[in-house]
C-alpha cells in the first residue's frame, strides 16, 4: 500500500480534537506493551507528549513537502540517538502510534487508513533509523 495523503489528513483531522489524550494513550500503550523502553523517557511526560503531538502535526501538515518531512525526520532520528533509542524500538513505537490513532479516529479509521498510516510509518522508520544509526556511529 502506498501513502494516501487524503486518508492521512482526514484521519488526523478526526483525531486532532483529542490532542494530548492521543499522546497520553500512545505512551500508556507503549509502556504497557514494552516496559523496557520506559527507561528511555523522563519521569514526567508532559513536555514529551507536546513534542510528539507537534511532530505528528508537522508530519501530516507537511506531507506534500518531502524535503521538509525528510529534514524533520532526520533531525528527530539524530536527537533520538542521544536518548538511547535504537532502530529495533521503531516497531513498538509504530504499533502504539497506530493503536492511539485508531482509538481516537472513530469511523475515520478504516483498513485503508491503517494501511496508509502503516506505509507512512515505514518511511518515518526508514529515515529516522538511518539518521539515528549515522549519528550513533558518528
TrEMBL record:
Example of a GO MF term: heme binding
GO biological process, one term: nitric oxide catabolic process
Keywords on record: Heme, Iron, Metal-binding, Oxygen transport, Transport
Family: Belongs to the globin family.
Superkingdom classification of source: Bacteria
Name this polypeptide is given: Globin domain-containing protein
Record organism: Kitasatospora setae (strain ATCC 33774 / DSM 43861 / JCM 3304 / KCC A-0304 / NBRC 14216 / KM-6054) (Streptomyces setae)
Pfam families: Globin
Chain ranges of the Globin domain: 1-133
Amino acid at each position: 500500500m502506498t501513502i494516501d495523503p487524503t486518508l492521512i489528513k482526514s484521519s488526523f483531522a478526526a483525531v486532532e480534537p483529542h490532542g494530548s489524550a492521543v499522546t497520553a494513550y500512545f505512551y500508556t500503550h507503549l509502556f504497557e506493551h514494552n516496559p523496557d523502553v520506559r527507561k528511555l523517557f523522563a519521569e514526567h511526560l508532559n513536555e514529551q507528549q507536546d513534542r510528539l503531538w507537534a511532530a505528528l502535526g508537522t508530519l501530516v501538515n507537511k506531507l506534500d513537502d518531502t524535503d521538509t518531512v525528510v529534514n524533520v525526520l532526520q533531525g528527530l532520528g539524530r536527537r533520538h540517538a542521544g536518548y538511547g533509542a535504537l532502530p529495533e524500538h521503531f516497531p513498538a513505537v509504530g504499533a502504539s502510534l497506530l493503536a492511539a490513532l485508531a482509538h481516537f479516529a472513530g469511523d475515520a479509521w478504516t483498513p485503508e487508513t491503517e494501511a496508509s498510516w502503516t506505509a507512512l510509518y515505514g518511511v518515518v522508520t526508514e529515515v529516522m533509523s538511518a539518521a539515528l544509526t549515522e549519528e550513533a556511529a558518528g
